[in-house]
Amino acid sequence: MKRIVVLVSGNGSNLQAILDACQQGRINGSVAAVFSNKAEAFGLKRARAAEVPAHALAAAQFADRAAFDHQLMLEIDAYAPDLVVLAGCMRILSAEFVQRYAGRMLNIHPSLLPKYPGLHTHRQAIENGDEEHGTSVHFVTEELDGGPVILQAKVPVFSDDSEEDVTARVQHQEHAIYPLVVSWFVDDRLTMRQGAAWLDGQQLPVEGHAFE
Ligand code: GRF
Question: Is 172 considered catalytic here?
Fold first, then answer.
């Protein structure tokens, strides 16, 4: 059974989708632990409710980013994860951290990458009058929101949409595609090689797997 460690900073609805998929056998693995840089993150409560060890590490307790990341790596490695999943982890991770989990760390970013890396993606899509928006699951590399895309889900944006409307529509898709990608990884179908994502031995295009 593959071991998954999840990093959250907030609500943890993507964590919940992954916990549920593990419990229902849609992911052939288990969440070994959840970490948060915010002690009050609701994601930690979700972990405890699922009887998964939940840990908070406060950046303020460490001298610098390197010291924080070093401790986080030690604590993560105690769970010997096959996969590290960033699920709303609102912290920029050091190069050392990213390198340690290279090829076995995933993130979900709420835009159709490479469009809108960084914050406030839904607001930007609305303000730019985009008719289409979405979310991307990608391998994590040192480039922020820049690693190879594995799978995207698209949603329409309507002219009278609020940011909340778009967020809800995108999150609905996230809860479907993130567990799916995690299941591919734990089933040994997914790898990162030569700066690209590969599924079932096929190199995926820049926008990820074409999911019809
Ligand atoms: C998600 O929309 C994800 O794309 C982004 O942060 C949000 C986290 O939501 N990285 P949640 O904490 O999983 O509910």
Answer: no
What is the average pLDDT value for the chain, to the nearest integer? 97
Average pLDDT over residues 127-137: 98
Residue where the block lists tokens 């031995």: 201
Residue nearest to atom 6 of ligand 1 (CA): 88
Tell me the CA distances in angstroms from 172 to 29, 116, 201, one per residue in order.
22, 19, 29
CATH number at residue 157: 3.40.50.170
Q: With a cut of 90, say whether residue 210 has pLDDT above it.
A: no
Number of domains in the chain: 1
For residues 133 and 157, the answer to whether their CB atoms sit within 8 Å is yes
Distance from the CA of 15 to the center of ligand 1, in angstroms?
Answer: 9
Contact (CB, 8 A) for 96 and 69: yes
The pTM is what?
0.97
Kindly indicate the confidence band of residue 211, based on its pLDDT and cuts at 50, 70 and 90. low
Per-residue confidence (pLDDT) for residue 13, from 0 to 100 = 98
Q: Which atom of ligand 1 is nearest to the CA of 87?
A: 13
> Which residue of the set 55, 70, 109, 138 is catalytic?
109
Nearest alpha carbon, ligand 1 atom 1: 88
Mean pLDDT along residues 136-145: 97
Atom number, ligand 1, closest to the C-alpha of residue 12: 12
Sequence-distant (≥ 6) Cβ neighbours of residue 202 within 8 angstroms: none
Binding-site residue positions:
12-14, 65, 90-93, 107
